[in-house]
Amino acid sequence: MDLITFLLVVHTLSFVKLIQAQCDKNGTCVCHCTDCSFGCRSCLPGWSGSTKNFCQKANTLYQFYAKDSEHIKVLDGNSSSFAESSYNPPFITVRLKAPKVVSRLDITLQLDAENNYTVYVKDKDNQYAQENTLECNTFSHKGVRTIKTISVMCKQPLEGIYIHIVSLPKVPLRVYEIEEFECTNGSFGYDCTGICPKTCSDQCNKETGQCTCKTGFWGTYCNQTCSTLCKDTLCDPNSGVCVNCILGQYGLNCTDQCSLGCQDTCNKTSGFCNCKKGYYSANCSLQCSENCKNRNCLQESGICASCVQGKYGNFCKEDCVGDCGDSCAQDTGLCASCTEGKYNLYCNNSCPQNCKSKICDRNTGKCSQCQAGFMGDKCLELCSTHCQKCTQDGFKCTKCENGWYGVKCEKRCQDSCGGNKTCDIERGLCHVCSIGYFGEFCKLKCNENCDLGTMCDKVSGYCHSCKPGKRGSFCAESCSQNCRNLSCFMNESCINGCEDSWFGQRCSAKCGFAVPSCDTCEVIDNKPVCQQCSDSWFLNDSRCFKCPQNCSSCLSVSKCHECKQNLFYGETCNLPCNAACSNKTCDITGQCIGKCENNKYGTECNQDCPVGCRSCHNASWCSSCENGFHMKCEGCPDNSACSECGICVNSNEDGIAGIMNGMSWKYHSFLTS
After folding, report:
1. CATH of domain 72-179
2. CA distance 416 to 437
């Protein structure tokens, strides 16, 4: 099969349904030419239109006949072949592959003079009927016989599977081709030369190119851009008028700015809006008077809702009449209240100077209350002696000087009253007592064991705190001897904790009873926990375990810290100290604690002194001699006294032996120096 034959087969199959997006919006179209490699010279069968955009005009009826159709030549795409009918009346009928909606047909036929032609679109149930409802349209010819292509527009779209053409009155009826042309998707126009604009939201009209615009475009061909002042760039697709304006704009094309006084946005047509605080008028272009309180006025008129302090009138331009305390009536200017210290209708009289807080009756000037120490309607008279404050009529004192009480503050409070000797103004009961006293009149003395730095209870005499070592309500009982520093609270619980070996709130429990052999413990989560064990015991996981037999203290069963009486040594104190150690004592490593005895020397007293030495420092230095021997001082520093310096020689030994021993000692000293 050659290339052209293959292309014919492929394009024949494509007539059933046009391929979507044959032309994209960048102007690139699918090729329907006989040769697409070197430009388009001719169109494939079933395709026509301009070769410039690769034959986008499709004959949708090309090869669209059913196999059992009688007049298939009229759909073969060949304008030189024809189907002819000599019936009376003559007709040509073609059956389609499938039902199809028909609106327009291009019919190429032989026209005879004075002949009428009718085109029908029928379904399978009425293929022989010729009813008006099935009629697509009629046409006639009055000239000479000719072959011509007639475009037939149906009166209404008709769906059917048969196309039926009838000729009256002359015969025969010769039809060359029945075609229905449609542009591929993405193209439009008579020869489908136009490309749908890329601003179309869907397929454009295949005849006119008109379409529904994408958001942001308008015009017949959607080639106009909506104004950037349109909200969401949305405008009328026909006129370009904005549907709504962006914030702050109004007008037909949203070119006008809303007033600065508009709260949010304004009416798109009129620019009217709701005003921000401080503005008024329909479009909020005017500012409220600065004397309007909080710059708040009526939007319609600009009249202030209320005035700032000191002003009145519709627009608050006038000063209030008199010395007003805060504001005045907006319509009359009269004060609603007077400023502090003023009274009468216009608030221009001063209140008496002894009025409390300078407040007096607005009409009469009578003081509401007097300052301390004064009485009378206008507070011009003094209260009685020792009376700091009295009723306005002067009958009774309400506050006395410290140390006085009574109706006229004529009686003295008890000397033992505390707090500057103050007492109840009516009975003389002390408010508080001086330290060391209690009772209503503070005549009773607190217990001597009460802490002198604090007071006892005024009513009961109970001590608030006790002297060290005492406890109880009256501090008459002693703290437990097991309390550290003998210090406890009133309820006998120890303040500073317990002495060693004791625990509990009152330190009454022995640690060794709770944890055997425990010497020191603490209460953790209400449970005694051992911190240190008794001698010869060690602590492991809050329990005490016995040390090895000769240990006085240890870290574990295999590690002693100190041996009993220093008579043993070793990790478990299982070795006795050397008998030559003084008092047979040594440290845990076996080194003697004191001097060596029994003619021994060394850290462990396990080396022999020279012959004749009772005690020595080393093998060549005696510190004392045995009986019958004496110290020879040769070799001592500076030949000084030779106590504990030298060697011991036999007192009966001749000079030669002494000299030999001396030389031996010197030679040994030389070797050890």
Report:
1. 2.60.120.260
2. 7
